[in-house]
């Protein structure tokens, strides 16, 4: 892995963490089913904490859930980011007239 890939993943993870916080706030404020988007992180955090939030370390469970959810959300962000970069590069490499040969 080169520096650009690591930097891109780090930014994707940061965006995933921001999305996790945003989804958590929206899920706690509204009566919508948007909290279901946080389910993958909760299920992954249930591996070390089998009792979930009712374990003796509920704060650690919340932290692990947040990290896991940010990790899960960083992959779609990175995929979209890569697709946008590739489409911009393809548009720059078009010959004169803007049509592919």
Short description:
This protein is mainly α and 101 residues long.
Report on this model:
With 101 residues, the protein is mainly α. Helices cover 68% and strands 0% of the residues. It contains three helices and no strands. Helix 1 (3-29) crosses helix 3 and helix 2 crosses helix 3. The chain is elongated. The two termini are 33 Å apart.
Approximate strand percentage: under 5%
What does the largest sheet look like?
none
SSE order in H/E notation? Answer: HHH
Instruction: Output the structural class.
Output: mainly alpha
The quaternary structure here is single chain
Approximate shape? elongated
Helical amount:
55-70%
Count every beta strand, where a strand is a DSSP E run of 2 or more residues.
Answer: 0
Low-confidence stretches: none
Name the average pLDDT.
Answer: 84
User: How many helical elements?
Assistant: 3
Radius of gyration: 19 Å
Distance between the termini: 33 Å
List its salient traits.
elongated, mainly alpha, 101 residues
Secondary-structure blueprint of this entry?
Layout: H1 3-29, H2 39-45, H3 58-92
Helix pairs in contact: 1-3, 2-3
